[in-house]
Amino acid sequence: MLLSGTSFLVSEENILIEFNGSYLAYSYDFNQIYGEGVSFQILSYDVTCDHLKADIGARVFYAYGSVVLTKEGEKLEGDEFFFSPEERKGTLINYSEKVGVIKLGPEEEEEEEEEETDLPSDVLETLTLSKIQSSLFYFTCEMAQITEVYEVLGERVVLHLEGLESVGFKKFKLSSGLKQRDSGFSLDKIWFTKSQGIIARGSYLFRTPDRISSLTQLNYEERSVLKDYLGPDRQIDILNSTSVVFDNKTNASFTGNYNSSNLWNASIVLNRRWSETVTTNFDVSYNKPINFKGETWFGFTSTVSGGHLGDLSLAGRYEVQDQVLGSLAYGNTFLERFTLFLNSTYSKIKIVGSESFSEILTGGVSLSYDSRIFNLSTDYYLNHDLFGSQLLSQPQLRVGINPFPFYGGILVASLTNIFIYSDVTAGTEHQDTYSNNMIFSLSTQPMYVAPRFSLNMSVAVEQFLEKEDRNFTSGGFIGNAAVEVARGFFLEGLYNFQSRRRSRDWLIEGTTSQDLSAVFRANPSDKLSSWISVSYDPKNKRWTQSFADISFEVIRKWKFHTLINYDFILNKLNNIDLFLVRDAGRVQLRFIWRSLSKQFSVELIPR
Amino acid sequence: MAKLVQTVFRGIDTEMIKKAIVIFSVASFLAGGGCVSFKIEPRPEPEQLVETLVLCKRVIPDGELLAPVDITTDFVMDDPDVLCFVELKNVGRAMTLKWKWYAPDGSLFKETADVPVNENEAYLEAVTAYDGLDMQQEESLEGHWVVVILVNGELAGRRTFIVR
Question: What phi, psi does B20 have (nearest 5°)?
């Protein structure tokens, strides 16, 4: 389990600092160390202290209680010692008649200060022995070493699993993870499942400071071991992602992907920032889909931020088989409330399975005005299919009243109207159509009719009219009542009524639907968070569905969580998922049972 | 000016002892029956005593113990007190507690006498105690303050706070 998330590094380990102690404990969950009766060396001093706290992830090291530093007859004493093994500096503080601060620097220059404001503030308040001992995985040892890449190594180690003393090791790597990794090869995972076979994942990282970073990942799946598997015996995926920084204005990136099913692609992007407002990307890419001919594209994208003159974006791509993509967009806001947006695209793309091309030119103009009371927007959209000789033009007009409160802020109303006209010309054929859609809504804020009882309602009406007379009117009402029966326990009722009426000449037809739901919520503390709902159909006088989401702490940070769905109409349990979850700092351990797939799984997820 | 230090403690719960014996038995069985690859000598038991050290405005009774209320590190001159609350866990021997309060200029403003705890050397599951800085002073107390707590004369915790 633990090893499935563990990287094995081939690179050399250089020790940054070594701690010896009467008691040293390292929490894998939190990546933190707590120690008692600890000794170590830093800046040529031998240091002893009562207590040590170290947060490896945050790079904070703090020793306190009877701190003594000795070097060649020199002896410094204090109550607290903050130090950085990487930067080779420390601060010794003592609390006597005054707060005394001694800073120890790289050149061993000692300067005494008496200014209290220079005190380091992070004393790792939350790092306590009981926190370490509540970890899912923690180790106790006599000696712990921190490497230059902040890996933690231990000697004469005892693993504690959920607080129980377990296996002992002479020497063990206590921490791991890609985040802490320097250049080198890593075998990330090997496992077996009945559906996928044997799976192996490895990666190789190459990195030079501030310039090149390249990660190559290999995924291998061996399926020949599976029974009744009809696909290929094995599959290999190789992915590479490389970035190179040339200077603070220019960088490039490469991504490549090869799959043994004869699919591969690669792309190179060069990003250049000409000035604070102008940026351009140049790219070359090759894509080879399965069973189709590969495509090679050359392209660029340029953006110009013109401030009050507006923003302009220009992009173009060309493919060696004469395919072309181009786009131009301009946007600007002026006179504070007006927004203008223009865009145009041109595409000439090969039709799959033939030598012909589709050729389409589109364009759009949008001008909108937004005031405190209402908003107005007018759009014009044009689509010209140059290959099929079709021209679609579609002007739109939207008018809306912004939601406004009234009746003391209890009620909120809004009104929106959208008119769309479409004109299609195909050769000598010409067709036009129009529609109008109006929506009105009125809702209330939650109204407390008693200290623990609130009501909330909303109604909406929509009318849709069009040239072809397929008109309809629909309306709905939603009512919601909530009562807090006890602290953290709520009972909610929801009633939903929807009606849709279609009118055509003298004929009126329509449907109505109703839904009545009750929800019971329980959130009295962090240890219990659950809700159960049940739905009733008043129109047909029958129960419909029930859902439950129940989560509570079982013991020692183990949480039980279940999702249940029951269908009263089919009279069966549709779905039940069971989770047993242990939050363990930077990992989460989950035991999962899913009734739909009838699968039990165990997951260890890095967080 | 000085406030009296208050301490309250609770003895160990017999139910907890029973649970501990069961857990210890299971752990011993697992460790003995498991695949121990290397015999590690028993380590001395750790004894980090300070479980909680916070600054607050009030302290209230909480069962047999005390609990901090209005936990903060930001105080104003109108606040009546700044309280430094400490909770010790698993106290098995006699010891002393001492609070030291350092003013913004770094000078020692106030220190308590050594407060004896568990003189009878019983096993106490938890001990709570606090000391306070009276804000009703003639002089201004504004600035960044430091309070440290010493157990048997050795520093066991430190907090900083600001008075505006």
Answer: -60, -40
